[in-house]
Structures are given as structure tokens and as C-alpha cells.
Amino acid sequence: MARTSLLARSPFAPSFWRSPVRGTRFTALLGVVLLGGITLLFVTGLLSYAAYNPNLAAVNDKTPDKGILGFYLFDWPTDPPWLYRLTQGVHVTLGVTLIPVLLAKLWSVVPKLFTLPPARSLTHALERLSLLLLVGGALFEFTTGVLNIQLDYVFPGSFYPLHFYGAWVFFAAFLAHAILRTPTALRNLRRMRAPSQEGGEEHGEHGKPGEGATRVARDEPDELAAPEPADPTVSRRGAFGLVGGASLLLFATTAGRSFDGPLRRTALLAPHGGAEPGSGPGGFQINKTAAYAGISTAETDEEAWRLVVTGRTGTVRLTRAALRAMPQHSSALPIACVEGWSTSDQWWRGVRLRDLAALVGHEDAPDVFVESLQRRGAFRHAALRSNQVADPRSLLALDVNGEELTPDHGHPARVIVPGAPGVLNTKWVTRLSFGGVK
Amino acid sequence: MRTRGLPLPRAVALGSPLQLLLLACSFALAGYAGTRLLAGDWFGIVLWFVGAALLHDLVLVPLYGGLDRAAVRAFGTLGRREWAGYVRVPAALSGLLLLVWFPLIGGRVADRYRSATALSADGFLGRWLLITAVLFGGSALLFLWRLRRATKRRPSADH
């Protein structure tokens, strides 16, 4: 007796869950939003992975064991030059915006976690196990992403393999869940728009008898609705409004970090939102400062610094003055970070990478291995593909916005390539090995 | 979905073979990626993966659900359950912002953020508090405006 009444008051009893907002319609609408949103997150995530050109060189590849998961990799293009700015801006801003939808979706199905019996069949047992991968995977991906953009590296390992392999585990479960559930969700949404269900304020799932007879006949009991709902304090439409409003608030305080000036100031709580770092030609966003990277002026001053360029015909050492004596070219290109922030076009000026390749005997631009003065950091060495070297807008920049590079933007020289992720635009460059990609 | 309701007892125990096949494919892909995911600190990663789900379902949901019920109950004792929204909406939005941006708001990454990006790390707490104040203030204004409108309408209806 005592055990029965205890069970009856526990989360395992359907009557424990009282909110009249829960129901298949609430879940279905959130589910459809997530179906589209998470698919876009996954695709932009895969694009970001490809943007690093992991197949080009070991230094670009933080997931060398990827196997077939890299099946789709392609040479990352240099056109349009804002490509990575767009794809990664969408990836991160959309991810942040979807957090309330994800939380609301999980809230709406929480009672199912406590369903008894735990499994009705082998399939059901496996489906529930798959839900652990789905829920754990979603939270793992969102959490590692949100922490990484805030530079809070508390997760157990390097961000790249965790977020990449985690995405595939999550997506495997997501795909199965989408295939199993989307037909039901769409059926529920169609019923939601049915003429007999006007108003959207209804809290039960029971269609009014006599109206829309064919639909009612197909009505299934709502397995997500509370069997003994409490008096409503908010309509289902109001609950949707809260979720949408929360998404809008996160979007409005995040999206500005993909732009400069007044728009960036609207990103009130997001990293790289707010004011620019200083003013003047170098007053735009910095990923890692010279001090953070451990770059000392003793290594970068006119006397000490030499650019070593190697290629087919041997090795050339260039002073900054020698670089200045070469033909100077300009390109207007943005900086776009994997963390989702980006800058508008900055006006870079310097020597074309393909001119430097020609200097050491490469008339057709080859791949290049770029080394920085940085002593630590995942991308102090990086490889660029031949299409990136060949692009006339790809520079070893000496100036930005009409002035010499500042130390934080890579003085004495930095790479800038159209469309590439920020970390491949190596700063404080000391060595370029054309055709020397390993 | 409905194929699960097959009348044969043996079929019920197994479930839909098509779904079984789909789940097997899903587990195979998850396993392929999962062995690579766990190649590093496998214990820590499993802890994060499973822990995230447990923490959400068994701590976060009961926590905000309980707070919400307490708020509704408090207004219920005043006989004004419908007023709870004026508190729960700004509280939910403010809490959500804190949940997403707590490393920056709480200042736990302030030193790294400052030295890596040359940006100030001090404004986040202040801005969050300001947003919270605006949310609650806006909610209070809306409440007062609606209350005024309701009380104005009532006497004129009595005439």
C-alpha cells in the first residue's frame, strides 16, 4: 500500500506531471524547428571542418582518426571571400539562438524519461538508449560550443575532436529520431491547423466530437499531455511566445559580433561583442594578442626579424625592407573566427603569396607550410592549399587600414587569405615553405 | 510508428523490424564516431556526455520547475495566479542569459579573455544586471499599465 502511494506521487506516475502546456503539439512544433535548425547547425559545422583543409597537412588536422567521417571533404574555396564569415557566423549565432528551443523541447518530453515499464520491446529499449545519445549528445554539443566561444576550456580534451566526434554521435541519434518522429510531428502540426481547433488556447488534446469527424477518428491519445492537468497559468501560445522571445533575446544580444561598430555594441553579453579593442587602424577584433602568444619585440624588430622563404630553387631570407621593395598589393578581406565572431572587411596591404612562391622557383603556386614565431598554440603552424596561395587577394600583409600592422595583428607580417578561417591567417610569420607541406 | 501495436505477442516483444534496423544503423554510426570520441580521456568524456543529460533532467528541470511552481503558488495565495507571469517571464529570460553566459558574467574566464582578446572582461556582470533590471522593470510597467486600464474600465462599466 505504502509503496503504491509513494509511486503514485513520484515522477513515475503520469499524474505527477501537471503542466497543461505539455502535449504533442507543443513538442511537435519545437521538434520541427529543431529539425531544421540542427540540420543547419550540422551542415555549417561540417563546412567549418572542411574549411580547415584537414586533409592537406597533419598540422591542419586535429582529428587524424576521422576515417570515413571526412568522406565529404573538398578543397575549401577562396570565393566568396566572406564564405567562412557567413557559415561560421550562422553556426554559432544559430546555435546560441536555438538554446531556448532545445531546453523547451527537452522540458516538454521529460515525463517520458520516467515512463513505466522501462521497455515494452527490444526496439523500445534500444530507442530509449538512443535517446540518451540524443539528449546527452545535444547537451554535450551545445555546452562545449558555448564554453569554447567564451574561452572556458574546462571540457575534457581539445575542443576540435570533442565537438567534431561528439557531433557525429549526436547526429547518428538525431537522424534516427528524426526519421522515427517527424511523421508524427507533422501529423500533429497538421491537426493543429485544423479548422476545428481554432484559437490555439486549448490545453487538452481531445478534439471536439462531431467536428472534423475524419480527423477525430484518427486522433490518438496524447501521450505527452498531463492526464490531470493543473489550471493553466499560461496558454500554449503564451508558452511558445516565451520560447520565441527567449530565442529573440539571445539572437539580439549575440548576432552583432559578426559586424563592426555600432552593431557589435548590440552583442551585449556575447564574447567579442561590445566595444572594439582600441581605436585607429588596428582597432578591430583580435583572436590572440602578441602578449598572449608570447611574442617579444626582440624577435620582431627590424634588425632581428627575417622572413625565410623556401622552395624549389632554395632558401631566401628577406628583411622587412626587402619585402617592401617587392610589388605591394591590397585586398579588402574580413577576419572570421571559428568562435563565430568576425570583422567587416579590413584593408590589407603587402606582398602576394604567389609572388613569394615565384621568388623561390614556383611559377604555379603550390601548397605552402606557414610557421609563426608563436611557441605554443594549436595553429602556430598551418598549411594553405595551392588555390589559396594562387588567389591574387592572398597576401603576406605588412599593413592594415593604411598603417603598419600592430603587434596584436601580427607585426611584422601576417597571412591573409580570402574565405579561410581566422587561425589559418597566421600572424607573426617567420617562415614560408612552398611545396613543403607535410 | 503504429506498427508497434501488432497483435502478435512475439512481434510486440521485438518491436518493428524496420525501426530495429534503423536503430542498428544509428548505433553503428554512433559507435564509429564514439570510439574516436572516447580515444582521449574516455572517463571524463563519458562523464560529460551522460552527466549533461542527467544534470539537465534530474537537477536543472526540477530546479526551475520547482521555482516556477513556488512563484505560481505564492501568487495563488494572493488569489492572483495569473499575475505570476509578470515575475516568471523576466526571471526565465534573465536566468537563461546567465545559464548561457555564466563564464563571462561570473568572471571565471576574465583573465584569459582580457589577455587573449585585449577586450575588457569587466562589463558582462553589469550588463547582465542591467538587462535583468530592464526585463523586470518592463514587466512591472506592463503590469501597472494593465492594472490601471482594468481599474479604469470597471467603474465606467458600473454606470
Please tag this protein with its features.
heterodimer; A: 438 residues; alpha+beta; Sulfite Oxidase, Chain A, domain 2; 2 domains; five-stranded mixed sheet; five-stranded antiparallel sheet; 13 helices; 10 strands; 11% strand; B: 159 residues; mainly alpha; 3 domains; 6 helices; 81% helix; disordered N terminus; transmembrane helix (chain B); membrane (chain B)
What is the SS-derived class of chain A? alpha+beta
Order of helices and strands of chain B: HHHHHH
Number of strands of chain A: 10
Helix content of chain B: over 70%
Main sheet makeup of chain B: none
Our count of domains of chain B comes out at: 3
How much beta of chain A, percentage-wise?
A: 5-15%
Over the alpha carbons, how many angstroms does the gyration radius of chain B reach?
26 Å
Runs of chain B in which pLDDT lies below 50 for 5 or more consecutive residues are 1-9
Whole-number tally of structural domains of chain A = 2
The largest pleated sheet of chain A is described as:
5 strands, mixed
Q: What count of helical segments of chain A does DSSP give?
A: 13
Order of helices and strands of chain A: HHHHHHHHHHEEHEEHEEHEEEE
Given the structure, what is the number of helices of chain B? 6
